[in-house]
Structure formats: structure tokens, C-alpha cells
Amino acid sequence: MRLVAIGDVVGEPSTWNPQESTSREPFRYIDISSVDAREKRITGTTTLNPSEAPSRARQLVQPGDVLVSTVRPNLNAVAIVPDELDGATASTGFAVLRPNAERIEPSYLYQGVRSPGFVRGMIARATGASYPAVTERVVRKSTIPLPPLAEQRRIAAMLDKADAIRRKRREAIRLLEEFLRSAFLDMFGDPVRNPKGWEVVRLQDLCSRVVDCPHSTPKYAAGVTDFPCIRTSDLQGGFLDWSSTKYVKQDHYDERIGRHVPAEGDVLYSREGERFGIGALLPSNTRVCLGQRMMLFRPDAKSVTSAFLWGLLNSGGVYHMANQLVGGSTSPHINVHDIRQFRVYKPPLDLQMTYEKTYLTAAACREKIIGVGTRECEALFNSLAQEAFGGEG
Fold it and tell me: What's the mean pLDDT in 357-379?
């Protein structure tokens, strides 16, 4: 199929400088953080007055424009502008692609630039040591297959349907995860305010062990082994996501469990990085070791249940305690000693056991949703995108 440069089938947005404008009307601003990189859509905008606009607020967008982030780590932040954001202003951190309606369908272009091959191409072309990025020129010079408009519509409709199924499954999983957090808060109250007046102890008093990861870079195996090495990227929504897990060989596994052998019911916790402040329960029949930036809590069975400790570590209150110590850093990091000293509550064990039943039921439902096709949906969508758009752009 004929390939064309994206720049040959798109136009450019008009621009303005809010700070030089005579208008005092507030405007909607689409920053890089406005785009959910996983969902590939705009999830929120900021309303700004022209006088307070950042220097990057320059590009006027209209419905059907396709936004492609040009800065890492968000080179997979891609979105199509919906009708309700007509006239909004986008950051210059985006390449704003305005499809030529006579040559390319907006939804087809959107699916093309969000395809795994295109994103890999952008990442490979990124330059800059401390703040890797690609230029808008790189985006526009990248190529895309260009079938007739009718075929473009068919391909886009097929991918839209596959993506809708995928999103619905992910949303069901998200709601279950949110339900567990809400149930925890309803049952025990906020850990910071402690409205129910539970006994207050240090976090370490609820645990028989608190273990940090080895301070060394894991030696990953070339393929899958029996020994997963859990990294912060393996924690999603309070659960382990095995889709991109890396593994180690047994001799290296034995080295990394020298301090402690992780076991069922332990809570793994990310104390640093992009997914800072997330805990996940270790399931049964799994031998894992800790990657960098990870730590582990083993609950003291006389004081807490595993599910309660999981809920506590994933609560907004404990996250607030941790966030207070990192001070809003772009690369958050918290010391193990400080985490041990967090002041938290200890509700009655029988109430914790009631919550554990709720947790187990919801977690089982979550696994069932995943088991009946979520991973298959992801694989199908990626396969369809690969078939339609091929490799790197």
C-alpha cells in the first residue's frame, strides 16, 4: 500500500499569544498532562486567563485535529480533539495535525498515530539526554499507509469498535478497584483524620517485616523464567499487572531474596518513581523478588489482615503522608525509615476480616474479567493496528 508523509495530508493550526492578546476572556488549555496516555483521549483541560497563560499555550485547535505529544515520557500521549473543545488552545508540546478532509479521515489518522508501531518510531527518534523529545518535523515526515477514503473509514470503524470493547473492560476493572477503596474508607474512615477514633500506632507496628529492595540493578533474563522480578511498572490500580513483567534466573533470584522471601499475603509497595505510593497483594503460588524502588510489608497476623494493610497503603491518607515528605517532586522518593514511622490506625481485627471478605470477592471478580478476555482484547487491538498500519512510521 502506498505510504505518504503525514505532513502531506494535514494542515497546521492557527496560533496566538494569549499574553499579547487584548482579550480578557478565559480560555481552555490542553497541556500534555491533559491527555491520558493509556486511554489516548483528552481527560481534562485547564481554564486560564490570558495573563496567566504559559509560554507553550499557542496553538488553536478544532474538532478532528489530532494531537501527538513530542516530549517524553509522554510520546504515546495521542488524542483527537472532540467537538466540545472547539477553539481550545493546545501546548506547543503537541504536534497538532489538521487532516485534509479530501485525503485522510481524522479517525484513521488518529488510529495511525496511536498504533504501537508509530509510537515505537517516535520513541526511537527522540533525542536529548535529560528531556528527550522529537520535533514536529519528525512527526510530519513520518509515513502512514493511505488507502482510499472508504477503506480508511472501514479500518477506523473496525479499530474504534475493538477499542470500545477494550475500554469497557478496563472501565469495569477500574470501577472494581475504586469500589474497594471506597469500601475501605466507608468502613474505617480516613487514616489521617481517624474519625472513628481507632487506636493509633506506627505503620511498622502492624507488620512482622518491612523490607526494602536490594540496592542493585536486577540482572534480567532474556525470556520468561519461573522468577518474576516486580518493578514499579508492574503495579496497576493496586494490583499486579503481569503483561510486561521482567524475569530473572534462579541464581539471581536467590541473591535478591537474601533478606526476605516474599510470600502470599505480603504487600508489595512502590516507594519511588512515576507509580509512587501503590501497593499490591502477592497472590499464592508465586515466587517473586523485588526490583528497584520496591519494598515489602508482611502483615502481623495478630494485628492486621493482608487486605486491610493493602487498603491502608493504597488509601488517600497514607498517600498524603508520603507525598508530604517528597514535596511534590517530579521524581518522588521516600525513605523506608520514614514510611515505617507513619502514624496510622488499627481497627478491630474482626472488622478487618469483614473487609477482607469484600476484598476477596471484588478481586475474584476482577480476575474473572481479566480472565475472560481483557488481555485478548488488548492483543486483538494491537494486531489489528499492526495489520492496518504496519511497523514504524
Answer: 78
